[in-house]
Amino acid sequence: MGLGKTVQLIALLQHERQKAQGRVVGPTLLVCPMSVVGNWNRELHRFAPELVVHVHHGLERPQGEKFVETALAADIVVTTYALVVRDKDSLERVHWRRVVLDEAQHIKNPPTKQTASIRALRTSHRIALTGTPVENRLSELWSILEFCTPGYLGTQGDFRRRFAAPIERHKDRRQADRLKNLVRPFVLRRLKTDPTVISDLPPLVESRQNVPLTAEQAQLYDSVVNDMLNRVDNADGIKRRGLVLSALVKLKQVCNHPAHFLRQGADDDDAVPLPKLSAGEKLSARSGKAMRLMEMLEEVVATGDRALVFTQYRQMGHLLVAMIRQELDSEAQFLHGGTPQARREQLIERFQSGDPACPIFVLSLKAGGVGLNLTAANHVFHFDRWWNPAVENQATDRAFRIGQHRTVHVHKMISEGTLEERIDQMIEQKTELAQQIIGSGESWLTELSTGQLRDLLTLRRDTLEEDA
């Protein structure tokens, strides 16, 4: 993440063409998330202006024989994961010299049409680029290796039986070492702790901002927990798991801001208007995390620094933008999954230019947490937690990457006395439960007994503000 995968691939393309001395090399197909198409186009023109680049995207993109002609005339064709499925017939007409997957964790689910379409492409060479080859389960590593070296790790069932189950369930060290030795020859990897890398990077400073809930948040939090605990006693199976996961989402929203949980100011049919604020009243005052974030962003702006603010939720992103404009008298850009590609490029370019009018960039974790180069920022705020360290680290690495010359400060916002605090403690202490979280996302919560849920979710009253 941020250690030069893009530049390495571009250098490989250049080296091949220099070595070929005018002979036809053949086109490379690069498949990437929509959010980084523009970044690849910029980097290719920046580092290798001699390469012919075709961005296969948009309503006017060529199809059929016209696409084949365009692809064969290019050095590299850049397209998205979604279009590999939609334009499968056109893409399969070309025998690619190489197929490259950027953010290759997008094929972590083997049965999907997307993964099947990618594996069906005709190619002589395959490369997978990813900073997180394993986000949740070892099956994701199998899926990526199955693309790169088909059949090498056996069938998915064989892999699950031989490696995934013994390692994930029983912590089998022998099988873990065996898998590592099998995979090692096919992996080029650098870490930020490597001596040859760390000298090129500034320090990274992490801190946690543990803040109390407001009285309104505490009341909403208690009501969600009590309602869920009353209902799970009379449910089982899928229904029980659904109740727990639904409550988990609601508790996250309450910890973020009451308006988030109550759908106030959302941009959908179920939304209700935000209450009108009286003179001097602040929207952030209803949330402990929001108040602390505004205080810290005020310091960022005052010192001429720049910040990224990540949230999982689109609605929360809009609320944060509204708070920043109202309370800091500053413009905040917002990039989310619904942002058109051309607009994304404008937002990124403006932020990277150092425009003092927009020192804060709010991003949804899924749309902005991978692939982007945002080294103009030297502060990263995780407003709500994904509870998967790999995902959070990927987002942090939008700023903490090669090209960054200032110390990067990472701030993780945590609501005291709540589920957020207890999950964070488990992850930090690397307990057995934390390993389960990292191994299976949030689904482990659905299997806890009612007593365990009560202990994990119940609000600790001694952490509330005095007036709560």
Structure description:
With 468 residues, the protein is an alpha/beta fold. The protein has two domains: 5-189, 3-Layer(aba) Sandwich (Rossmann fold); 204-463, Rossmann fold (3-Layer(aba) Sandwich). The protein is built from 21 helices and eleven strands. The chain has a six-stranded parallel β-sheet, with helices on both faces. The chain has a five-stranded parallel β-sheet with strand order 2-3-1-4-5. α3 links the parallel β2 and β3 (76-80). The radius of gyration is 24 Å and the shape is globular.
When the domains are counted, the total is: 2
The CATH architecture of the largest domain can be given as 3-Layer(aba) Sandwich
CATH fold label of the largest domain: Rossmann fold
Average residue-wise pLDDT: 85
Q: Based on Cα principal axes, name the global outline.
A: globular
Compute the CA-based radius of gyration: 24 Å
CATH homologous superfamily assignment of the largest domain:
P-loop containing nucleotide triphosphate hydrolases
